[in-house]
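Dear colleague,

Thank you for sharing your sequence with our group. We've completed the structure prediction you requested, and as agreed, I am returning the results in plain text so they can be pasted directly into your records. Please verify that the sequence below matches your submission; if there's any discrepancy, let me know and we will rerun it promptly.
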Amino acid sequence: MRAIFVDAVYWVAYANPRDQWWEIASEAFERLEDSVQLVTTHEVLTEFLAALSGNGPYLRSIAVRTVHEILDDTNIEVVPQSPESFTNGLERYANRIDKGYSLQDCISMNVMEAKGISQVLTSDHHFEQEGFVVLMKGDAIGRE
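Please find the predicted structure tokens below.
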């Protein structure tokens, strides 16, 4: 079974029907949920919760429910946050000082490399800059 990394952009779109990427994220979930191993990180989930934190109680409650569902789903591997993930992410961040990568992106990229994952459910072009395949582009999901 192939693995696909899931970025916060996907989780935000999946949880928020008003998000510009919602339709694409929903289609991706239906297409991929049984055919791949989804991988994400505690840092990505933190970023997801932060992204929806200022959108009122309704979306905050959806965010909490979504994270609980992710943590309980045996088809989703959640890589734990650790001091090593932070320091290794910080090292990548420092080595890409000319880029606009967030620390979470750097940590995600490190996890993807460590697990041999080349595809990511996101629209974030920073992953493409590092040679990964972004699966949420334009109005269609990127295809192999």
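Summary note from our side: The longest helix spans residues 56-72.

Kind regards,
the structure core
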